[in-house]
Amino acid sequence: MDQLSKKRLVVRLDETESTNAYMKELVRKKHPEEGSIVIAEYQTEGRGQRGNAWVSAKGENLLFSLLIYPKDVPANEQFIISRIASLAIKNTLDQFADDIRIKWPNDIYWKDKKIAGILIENDLQGNKIENSIIGIGLNLNQEVFPPELPNPVSLKQITGVTYDKDYILDMLLREFFLLYRELEEGNTSTIEDEYMRDLYRANDYYWFEDAEGKFRAKIENVLPSGRLVLRTLDDDDIRAYAFKEIVFLNE
Ligand code: BTN
Fold first, then answer.
1. What is the SS3 string spanning 29-94?
2. CATH 2.30.30: does it fit domain 205-248?
3. Of all helices (H) and strands (E), which one includes residue 183?
């Protein structure tokens, strides 16, 4: 990773509560360089989105948190970091499997199964992001998942190959920083376009559910704020949703 500072920290842990939590403490105590990472073989309290747990078998998958200090990303446009992280994972996985898509806002899917999740914790200062901790859980080599997980899949289940975690991590960081440089150069529209192109369940009508009930709609756009814009089938209505306000249905 030649473009990254030689002084960045790389912390490797056998076990920790959560790499995001560990990184948060590191930031508080040491303010490490951009590009620093914390990688763990196992998390005792891995965190997912919506307050869910992230469960991953010991030693089999990639679990890490990456630290960046984005310049000039306004709080109301912080979703650009999610787009970059999602695309970095997708671009990495594309080199091994077909049919990898980004399920809004930032789940990575293979067909109808989830292969990776992202938990981004941004520290805001005023109206700007001061630092961003990007936690990534990528199912690489796990072959058996607990039945309570809704629809997991690993890269090994797709291809039959066992992957070297460091090799994949290196690729993923390379993809991430290529896109991150685009952001630093002000090319947000390139990133937004690429994200829209790679979205799961785009270009057709699907079932969704909001507080009012079920309806069929097509994804129209994802706004800089991260809100999902849908066009309803019945009345051609345009509606925008925040993450917790809408559910994709499998109907
Ligand atoms: C999701 O729910 O989809 C997000 C999952 C994010 C999991 C990763 S694993 C590494 C990092 N540390 C955590 O505690 N969570 C993230």
1. HHCCCCCCEEEEEEECCCECHHHCECCCCCCCCEEEEEEECCCCCEHHHCHHHHHHHHHHHHHHHC
2. yes
3. helix 165-184
Going by CA atoms, what residue is nearest to atom 3 of ligand 1?
A: 117
pLDDT in tens, 44-103: 999 999 889 999 999 999 999 999 999 989 999 999 999 999 999 999 999 999 999 999
78 lines ligand 1 (CB under 6 A): no
Which residues of the chain does CATH 2.30.30 include?
A: 205-248
Q: What ipTM does the predicted assembly reach?
A: 0.99
Whole-number Å distance, alpha carbon 37 to ligand 1 midpoint, is: 14
As a whole number of angstroms, the distance between CA 59 and CA 38 comes to 14
Which token pair is 225?
Answer: 């704020």
- The phi-psi region of residue 35 (left if phi > 0; otherwise alpha if psi is between -120 and 50; otherwise beta) is left
Bridge partners (DSSP) of residue 240 are 229
Atom of ligand 1 nearest to the CA of 52: 2
Q: Tell me how far CA of residue 244 lies from CA of 9, 50, 102, 226, in angstroms.
A: 34, 8, 17, 12
